[in-house]
Each structure stands twice: as C-alpha cells, then as structure tokens.
Amino acid sequence: MRTSPDRIDALQPNEVFVFGSNAAGAHHGGAARLAHERFGAVWGEGHGHHGQSYAVDTMSGLATIRDEVATLLRYAAEHPELDFLVTELGCGIAGHRPEEIAPLFAGAGENVLLPRRFRALLD
Description:
- The structure is a single chain.
- It is globular and about 35 Å long.
- It has helices spanning 30-38, 62-78, 98-101, 116-122, and strands at 15-21, 48-50, 53-57, 83-86, 112-113.
- Strand 4 (83-86), helix 3 and strand 5 form a beta-alpha-beta unit.
- The chain has 123 residues and is α/β, with parallel strands linked by helices.
C-alpha cells in the first residue's frame, strides 16, 4: 500500500492534503496553517474538501474524529480520481496517539494514502 509522504510541501493536481482542524476552521498552526497557506483550506471551514485540502475536525473528541474520518472515507470512495494524502491528524495538538487514530482508517480505499505510522499499525 502507498503511504503519504512524511513531509508534504507541494501537491500534484489530483492530490488532496488531509489535515486536522478545529470545528471553527481557525487554521492558525501546523498542518492546518499549511493547508490554508498553500492548499486552499478556507478560514472558517473546519470540515471537508476545499481547494486541494480536506479538513477533519480533530479537536472535538474521538467520537467526532471517528465520524469525520468515516465521512472522509465515503467521500474518497466517491472520488477515485483523487489521492487523499493523510497527515498524522489528531496526533499533534489534539493529543491522540497513532494507536487511537489509525484504526479509524481500516478499510480505506487505495486512494487514501496514510502516514507510515498509521499504515504500520494497520498492516
């Protein structure tokens, strides 16, 4: 299985940067800031596909992350022409461990590229 790059600085036209956000879409730091500055994330939008980015609310609890990831996986399945490059969302300021987040991606399609640590936990 393909994995997302350890560092994402640029995207191909068919690639989408998947990052952790807060529900308010205040993209102040980390991957959220990068998504806003480079990949079309919209200030005030903390969920979904905008430009070449896809926001997942990781700041409203694990149940919300579970629902958001399920929505992402359905969306990715509906858009096989796109590759979704997932960051280690939820494992920074949100305070979760990869062992908590990676299982939420079980069964992800081939166009959902997971970080190496997530992939290793699922394999």
